[in-house]
Design brief:
With 328 residues, the chain is an alpha/beta fold. It has helices at residues 12-23, 48-55, 77-98, 138-157, 177-182, 185-193, 200-217, 235-240, 242-249, 253-260, 275-280, 289-297, 305-310; strands at residues 3-7, 27-32, 41-42, 60-63, 102-108, 125-127, 160-166, 219-224, 270-272. The strands form two sheets. Strands 3-2-1-4-5-7-8 form a seven-stranded parallel beta sheet, sandwiched between helices. The longest helix has 22 residues, at 77-98. The model has no long low-confidence stretch (mean pLDDT 93).
Length: 328
Amino acid sequence: MMQVLVTGSSGHLGEALVRTLRELGHDVTGLDVVAGPFTNHTGSICDRACVAGCMNGVDTVFHAATLHKPHVGTHSRQEFVDVNITGTLNLLEEAARAGVRSIVFTSTTSVFGDALVPPAGAPAAWVTEEVIPLPKNIYGVTKAAAEDLCRLFHRNQGLSCVVLRTSRFFPEEDDDRTVREAYADANAKVNEILFRRVDIADAVSAHLLAAEQASRIGFGRYIISATTPFRPEDLPELRTAAPAVVRRWVPEYEAEYRRRGWSMMPGIDRVYVNARAREELGWRPSHDFQTVVRRLQAGEDFRSPLARLVGAKGYHAEQFADGPYPVA
């Protein structure tokens, strides 16, 4: 049994982690600025004393607390620095002081930023851990900096740190008006499973494996996204004729989409590749596009039971006229 601290325990991933860890019999402390049934300590990672008070006896920290992309339009750059960088530094320093064995840091594929957008006429981007991040907003910048803090603490303090760059798993509707107008919400999310989305149950399993493997790995970065059916040789065609490529790999999708009145996007500009996580962590994500299509054919929800249980949280207390959150 592990003694675990989960930051961001009232959020999507934090709740999913606490639920799963407790079901497995681990002793879990949840820390979040928002009170909730999976949060034992209501407080901020920006508060060093609060962090220190949660760290005694802890074996593993799952650090999911963050300001997200949806907060870019409503929070200052300084607030992003305070939470995502200083908050992470507080956790790392107190973890090192308390003798914590490992930290699993939830990062994001948003760190890649402008590296995800190929120039016009170029093939879709094949995004592996070798791609050099080019963050395009304060969210990406602060998450990349926090990743580097993790690497620094492994180098200088010997703290095992595993960074997981997760793709989309939020259940809220898309912030892009054009996407909302072109596709039903479930249609858009199932499309994304091909190249930029992961079910939260698979995200949780990756975090648990990262904790198990952290002492062996020392420091590592991994892309956590659903396994794509695509291959590098598909990338030129994928950019402009995605339905034909999807038909080649998962032909049964067409009839089910037709039955539902759904459509495949005409082009896909990037593909997140999870090969390193599968190879080095032994991760076996269960929710790929083919599996989801078969679930739809059986009349089932495309989401995992855990995703349905956690549900939608939202990112703001207020409502916005144009979409789930303002786009900066």
